[in-house]
TrEMBL record:
The entry's keywords: Transferase
EC number of the protein: 2.5.1.18
Top-level enzyme category: transferase
NCBIfam families documented for this protein: PRK10542.1
Originating species: Pseudomonas fluorescens
Gene3D superfamilies: 1.20.1050.10, Glutaredoxin
Keyword Transmembrane belongs to the record: no
Xref: InterPro entries: Glutathione-S-Trfase_C-like, Glutathione-S-Trfase_C_sf, Glutathione_S-Trfase, Glutathione_S-Trfase_N, GST_C, Thioredoxin-like_sf
Superkingdom field: Bacteria
Protein name listed in UniProt: Glutathione S-transferase GST-6.0
Span of domain GST C-terminal: 87-200
Domain GST N-terminal, residue spans: 1-81
Residues annotated as transmembrane: none
Any GO molecular function: glutathione transferase activity
Length: 200
């Protein structure tokens, strides 16, 4: 498998999961501006959407969109319990959580990268984000991870996008359980290895 990634991007989430599962994969860096890979290939030929993550399977198929990639990887090794089994209510809950992260957290923080937005608009985006943070904080006050069964692909995704908060001077200590969650996930060996590889 090949994971196409960019530093500081949401592609960190499947990178973490690949390492959690100890899968063999090739890590290929993408320049988000030129849309070329580190070896000079046209990334748009691999993923016409033009953004990471993209996971190229050994049969040549390319899978895009973080939540889909995360679930695909988890299902390769169900014994690792990074996702509940397909067809169970717990899996539906996981999908609910992934959708919430994708639309409300990833989407919200993503808008803050737009330099053309005036400060008043960014303040409104943050106001909405903070309400969503409060919801997550309530969950994480009750349990260490988003799913009751322990660390899952949802945690890898949330950890990844919450790393952007500091870029916008958002102090997660305003949501203590969320801050503890970030610190907890940051200590996982797979997370440390993924971050180190992306900085290399």
């Amino acid at each position: 498998m090949k994971l196409y990634y960019a530093p500081q991007a949401c592609s960190l989430a499947p990178h973490i999961v690949l390492r959690e599962l100890e899968l063999t994969f090739e890590l290929i860096r993408v320049d988000n501006i030129s849309k070329t890979t580190a070896d000079g290939d046209d990334f748009l030929a691999i993923n016409p959407k033009g953004y990471v993550a993209a996971l190229q399977l050994d049969n040549g198929e390319v899978l895009t969109e973080g939540p889909a990639i995360l679930q695909y990887l988890a299902d390769l090794h169900p014994d690792a319990k990074l996702a509940a089994a397909q067809g169970t209510f717990e899996r539906v809950r996981l999908q609910e959580c992934l959708n919430f992260i994708s639309t409300e957290i990833h989407g919200g923080l993503g808008w803050l990268f737009n330099s053309r937005f005036p400060d008043e608009v960014k303040a409104l985006i943050k106001e909405k984000l903070f309400k969503r943070f409060a919801v997550l904080n309530q969950t994480l006050e009750r349990q260490d991870y988003l799913m009751a069964g322990g660390f899952s692909v949802a945690d890898a995704y949330l950890f990844t996008v919450l790393r952007w908060a500091r870029l916008f001077e958002i102090d997660l200590n305003g949501w203590p359980a969320l801050a503890r969650f970030q610190a907890r996930v940051d200590q996982r060996p797979a997370v440390k290895a993924a971050l180190a590889a992306e900085l290399a």
